[in-house]
Amino acid sequence: MRYQYRITKYDPSLRDSYGAFQNPDWTSYSDVGRIFGGVPLSEVGYLQVEASYLFAVEAFLTEAKIGGLLLRGLENHTDRELPSFIQPHALLTVPQCVEFARIALREIAWGKLVVPSRAYVHFGYDYYMYLGLPLQCPSAIAAAQKRGLFVEHCRSPYLRQRSNTALNLAPSGRWTLRDKAPRSAG
């Protein structure tokens, strides 16, 4: 991926020399009701920030002309039932990716959204989100920043070096996974 971003609610100017954010701040939906900087985090306050992240996912994927991503490494962290479209290796549409982003940001489930060698959306600890895209997406960057998010050039720490599978569009119009490893004759 040529363009890789870390998208967060954290101002980079408030990071230490190692990149760690220095101010106490909420990092999870479970922090609603707790006090940060003398102010309790309300559900409304949480939902406003979450909406900015969800908007960013949709804006970046749309501007980069990514129509869908595969769900890899699905982990359900709760006993809650997930929507039926959330299945291991499912191909999610952009609206489904946005809904999965909501679920991941709320720490209900986790997974990586990918089109191997083309695009990804990853969710990290402490409300960090990483995107890798084939296009720069200046409109999405500006829109995310207008909504209070910080967009930094950064490679996802959840990105593997190489993928052994490729995504193919089958003649039937369905996406399939293909092993990229060379096949032996015989």
In short:
The protein is α+β, with helices and mostly antiparallel strands. The chain has 3 helices and 11 strands, in the order E-E-E-H-E-E-H-E-E-E-H-E-E-E. The protein has one domain.
Describe this entry's structure for a reader.
This protein has 186 residues and is α+β, with helices and mostly antiparallel strands. It has one domain (3-160). The chain has three helices and eleven strands. The strands form three sheets. A seven-stranded antiparallel sheet has the order 5-4-6-7-8-1-9. Strand 2 (35-36) and strand 3 form a beta hairpin. The longest helix has 21 residues, at 43-63. It is globular. The model is unreliable at 162-186 (pLDDT under 50).
Write the layout of secondary structure elements.
Layout: E1 3-8, E2 35-36, E3 39-40, H1 43-63, E4 68-76, E5 91-93, H2 94-105, E6 109-115, E7 119-123, E8 129-133, H3 138-146, E9 150-153, E10 165-169, E11 175-179
Helix pairs in contact: 1-2, 1-3
Keywords for this structure?
alpha+beta, 186 residues, single chain, disordered C terminus, two-stranded antiparallel sheet, seven-stranded antiparallel β-sheet, globular
Largest sheet: 7 strands, antiparallel
The largest beta-sheet arranges its strands as 5-4-6-7-8-1-9
Tell me the helix content. 10-25%
Total E-strand runs: 11
Radius of gyration: 18 Å
Please mark out the parts with pLDDT under 50 across 5 or more consecutive residues, or reply none.
162-186
The shape, in one word, is globular
* N-to-C SSE string, H for helix and E for strand: EEEHEEHEEEHEEE
Question: What percentage of the residues does DSSP assign to strands (E)?
Answer: 25-35%
Task: Supply the number of helical segments.
Answer: 3
Distance between the termini: 35 Å
Q: What number of domains?
A: 1
Q: Which structural class do the helices and strands define?
A: alpha+beta
The mean pLDDT is 88
